[in-house]
Amino acid sequence: MGNPLYDAFFAAHEGCKTPFLHLADGTTLNHADFLGRAAQYANALNVLGLQPGDRVAVHIQKSSDALALYAGCVQTGAVFLPLNTAYTASELEYFIGDSGAALFVCDPGDVGTLRDITASAGCILHTLSGDGSGSLFELAASQPEKAQVATRVEDDLAALLYTSGTTGRSKGAMLTHRNLLSNARSLLECWRFSQNDTLLHALPIFHSHGLFVASNVMLLSGGSMIFLPRFTVEDVLSWLPRATSMMGVPTFYTRLLDDPRFTKQATAHMRLFISGSAPLLAETHERFEARTGHRILERYGMTETSMNTSNPYDGDRRAGTVGFPLPDVEVRVCDAETGKELTQGEVGVLEVRGPNVFKGYWRMPEKTKEELRENGFFITGDLAKIDGDGYVHIVGRGKDLIISGGYNIYPKEIELFLDSLDGVLESAVVGAPHPDFGESVVAALVPEAGRELDIPAIQDAVRTDLAGFKQPRHIEVLEELPRNAMGKVLKNQLRERFADVFEIQAD
Ligand code: MCA
Ligand code: AMP
Fold first, then answer.
1. Mutate-to-test residue for ligand 2 from 275, 302, 309, 469, highest number of ligand atoms within 8 A of CB
2. Does any ligand 2 atom lie closer than 6 A to the CB of residue 380?
């Protein structure tokens, strides 16, 4: 009997009156009160008839209640399925259908758009707003602050996180109690989090970074979080004096460095700054140290695996590397064609194995087989090498992927959408260097013979159907796409052609 995640993250803090969440409105929720709130959500899920293993899809603003709903799912054995708040109705329709979610929770303002979609999928619809209102909030508020804890084993699913793919179809990564708990334990140990820590949390909680790397580690540590609804330089600077540590994507750190108030003095009390989700430029690493005296600790992970490697807490945090494998995580570099392990220093595809590696893709056994070897190694699709000192370097991507401000964008998904628009014969989407987001999206469009493309109409269609971060920020019409003799689009040529578009446009 037991529930691995509930026991480690929640039961461990029963009756504990120490602070857990410092909220933007200046109030603080202690651990015991948060547990009470979580139990109310667990009871609400039971009232709605949810069973262990049922998926609870959420498309809601970040708030203490959103986190309590996650905790309530863990308590009842429901599978938590968070969705990027930027997703449009047509994007959400896919996730609702594919996951077979039993309950969909959205912002009260989105009910009009989502009612039909959820109804035709046979999914219950409830609402929860970022400021504490909505039908699920009300249902939970009427429930007792104690709830049964569903028995779960380590191999049971705790969360389903969708991640896009090279085919353009998103895949649900099935994450178990073992996956999440083992990773939180490793990170806590490697990064020395304790109940004395206050983490400045400005990340979204619909991705692995903000939910599992940040929130799970703090739930395990018994420390507290400054839980900001979103990242702004102003809020981070004003809360920084109360924090001991911060996690972020590189864009957080470049934006902070652009503000002269972010100084050695402002950060002198900080214990740790961690970066991930996208490559941190060596230049940012160096500027950060020169300005603050702190060396950012860079780590590397994926939705399917949570975290795999980290630079050391003690010892050299090397710019341009993602450090060493975490405890119990094995990494190897293999030849992309043969799958044969390469020798030290050679560049190949990084594969990882360990208790952190997911169980497979939801209802996609073929995809799972392609990427998860029978011996347990997961093929990340990242190109890497391991140097003589054992540091892992991510040197590129074997997969066609753009990372913009820490969000992953698979060009295929956008190309399929653009190809379907009136007058478009074909399209190619690439990432171009962007001063704020690291990379951003560029689309090359080829019109059908004799047609002229209506770019404003295309931009309107893009805005209606694609989440903001996926929308091309630069569109160019070409007579034809560059191709090799085999007919394959030469994306490298397009990347070269568009290399400067955002540098020039940046103001
Ligand atoms: C917002 N916009 C973006 C992005 N974010 N465009 C490109 N890339 C982005 N990342 C667009 C919006 O659509 C909008 O466009 C305009 O920018 C302003 O929106 P706003 O919400 O105000 O943006 P922001 O506050 O400036 O957001 C930038 C951000 C945010 C703070 C960097 O994107 C962010 O919090 N990123 C973190 C992502 C993250 O948590 N990734 C972890 C994935 P318009 O004006 O046209 O409407 S997990 C992962 O990768 C693995 C496991 C790992 O290793 O961690
Ligand atoms: P996601 O699928 O959203 O979980 O994103 C995972 C991908 O982000 C990885 O496969 C890498 O390509 C990239 N990534 C995450 N952390 C880093 C890092 N520190 N350096 C380079 N790439 C990273």
1. 302
2. yes
